[in-house]
Inverse folding.
């Protein structure tokens, strides 16, 4: 990988290029869908590269294929169709779908979820996928196949695409570039070990990439000309109060572990940035990176870890709308910072 990629700014009226870093988080990935939808609609930004994990990997694959087929508007349609199919598939797989749904109140919005939402959470704490799913069935495989032509994407991917997975045996991160992307790669990146069997690719077995890179930032730094990286945060960094129940403790452990790799990379970026700004690194030897963040810790902190399995359409739309609102707010406040400076205080946020 070349660490001396040069930055060439866009000309007048040309969309500003960015790299996207998409976190994973199951159904909470619909928040990133909303964020992407708003950025694509805006028209002042172009996507040069995407690094993604888990649900972020699904968003990234659909986004890239949508851009290939129909540009920004094609990507918007592709993402909406994909998440609508996710909801339909989840409903079809739910044996309780004909029962009255339970209502619950959250952040001023009334959402719906089925009894299966609770039962699945308890079930996964007792049995492993090798026991309850010996045939290794995964409905996500069919959904992805309906929405992405991976052969076409490998040949003509319109962005620098990098998907992250965790090697089960070595514990190392595996970055799959555009030319290696397949359904198995996306499923490997999103393979929750308590829900699905490890995905085998070329004799190696992989779990969810969130354990070691959620997502990895370095592929964007090394391989993209843009200095701007926009992170779509799914797992809240800040959650006020000390958890005191078993579910709350488990939830917070999950959040911390899935943010840990990102936190480490942000610290490294802050260190290098300070060296560049202090003149301790010769000009051109390393690229100064500008970090931007689209997140809503308040929204995500109000949702438990089990809701990452909730693919009810109303819930996904709720998250989509929240993501869109946050992206719109970010554009209004920080668009002018793109290409000029970070809109995130790395010292305050990550050190």
């Amino acid at each position: 990988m070349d660490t001396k990629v040069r930055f060439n700014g866009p000309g007048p009226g040309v969309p500003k290029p960015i790299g996207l870093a998409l976190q994973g988080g199951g159904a909470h990935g619909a928040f990133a869908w909303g964020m992407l939808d708003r950025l694509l609609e805006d028209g002042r930004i172009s996507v040069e590269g995407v690094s993604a994990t888990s649900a972020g990997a699904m968003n990234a694959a659909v986004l890239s294929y949508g851009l290939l087929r129909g540009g920004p508007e094609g990507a918007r349609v592709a993402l909406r169709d994909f998440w609508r199919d996710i909801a339909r598939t989840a409903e079809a797989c739910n044996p309780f779908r004909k029962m009255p749904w339970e209502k619950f109140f959250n952040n001023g919005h009334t959402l719906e979820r089925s009894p299966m939402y609770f039962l699945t959470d308890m079930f996964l704490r007792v049995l492993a996928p090798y026991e309850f799913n010996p045939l290794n069935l995964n409905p996500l495989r069919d959904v992805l196949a309906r929405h992405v032509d991976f052969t076409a994407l490998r040949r003509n991917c319109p962005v620098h695409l990098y998907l992250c997975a965790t090697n089960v045996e070595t514990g190392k991160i595996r970055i799959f570039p555009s030319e290696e992307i397949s359904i198995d790669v996306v499923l490997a990146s999103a393979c929750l070990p308590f829900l699905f069997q490890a995905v085998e690719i070329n004799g190696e077995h992989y779990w969810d990439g969130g354990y070691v890179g959620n997502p990895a930032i370095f592929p964007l730094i090394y391989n993209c000309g843009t200095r701007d990286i926009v992170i779509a945060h799914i797992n809240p960094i800040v959650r006020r109060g000390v958890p005191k129940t078993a579910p709350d403790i488990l939830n917070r452990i999950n959040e911390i572990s899935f943010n840990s790799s990102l936190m480490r990379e942000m610290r490294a970026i802050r260190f290098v940035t300070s060296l560049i700004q202090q003149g301790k690194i010769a000009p051109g030897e390393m690229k100064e990176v500008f970090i931007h963040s689209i997140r809503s810790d308040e929204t995500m902190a109000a949702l438990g870890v089990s809701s990452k399995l909730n693919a009810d359409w109303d819930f996904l739309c709720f998250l989509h709308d929240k993501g869109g609102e946050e992206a719109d707010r970010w554009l209004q406040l920080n668009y002018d910072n793109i290409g000029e400076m970070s809109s995130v205080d790395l010292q305050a946020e990550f050190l």
About this structure: The chain has twelve helices and ten strands. The first strand starts at residue 16 and ends at 22. The mean pLDDT is 86. The two ends are 27 Å apart (CA to CA).
